[in-house]
Design goal:
There is one protein chain. With 186 residues, the protein is an alpha+beta fold. 29% of the residues lie in helices and 27% in strands. It has 5 helices and 11 strands. It has a 7-stranded mixed β-sheet with strand order 4-3-7-6-5-10-11. The chain has a two-stranded antiparallel sheet with strand order 1-2. The relative contact order is 0.24.
Length: 186
């Protein structure tokens, strides 16, 4: 769900309904580890515009084209210190920090701007997926392939989700770039 309004008018999409009332929440209750072993949490993402999405390093289907589009984003905002991308592995068993480092190196990912994250537990992985309003599930019995979305969530400096964009659709990528630029001006 992308929006064509100005950044100040982009909707806040991080909300739940409780007892019939809309309750906003922020994407700040998480603790993940990046490819270098550094902790990335809500505290470290506050004050920056960022995207979050899910992937896994051995994905044979949508992850490679998603990576190409995210590399375009990385290049488009390479000089912007207030923008980052965070891709969270859903393969808790196999995507070790060493594997995330190898993946970043093999695909020439600028890890200062785009970080690959791993949850510290499967519970933490499920929790961040719930906050980002998405899910994933194993595609086979041995847990080496997964169904997951090609959407990225755009999160503002105050930790609210401001849009969901299908990174595989060029028009949505262009809109995402425009919305990132608008949020950076705030």
């Amino acid at each position: 769900m992308a929006c064509k309004e100005s950044a100040s008018e982009l909707p806040i999409l991080s909300y739940n309904f409780k007892d019939g009332n809309k309750e906003l929440y922020t994407i700040d209750d998480f603790s993940l580890v990046n490819q270098d072993g550094d902790t990335i949490s809500g505290k470290s993402t506050k004050g920056i515009v960022h995207t979050m999405n899910f992937f896994f390093t051995t994905c044979p289907s949508i992850c490679p084209p998603m990576r190409i589009k995210q590399q375009e984003l990385s290049e488009a905002f390479s000089e912007e210190n207030q923008f980052k991308q965070f891709s969270i592995s859903i393969d808790f068993k196999n995507d070790t920090l060493a594997r995330l480092q190898q993946y970043a190196k093999r695909h020439d990912i600028n890890t200062k701007q785009w970080q690959l994250l791993r949850a510290v537990s499967e519970t933490e992985l499920e929790k961040i997926a719930q906050q980002l309003k998405t899910n994933f599930k194993p595609n086979d019995e041995d847990g080496t392939d997964f169904y997951h979305s090609s959407y990225v969530a755009l999160i503002d400096k105050n930790q609210y989700i401001r849009g969901f964009y299908n990174i595989l659709i060029d028009d949505e990528v262009q809109l995402l770039k425009s919305d990132i630029a608008q949020l950076l001006k705030q």
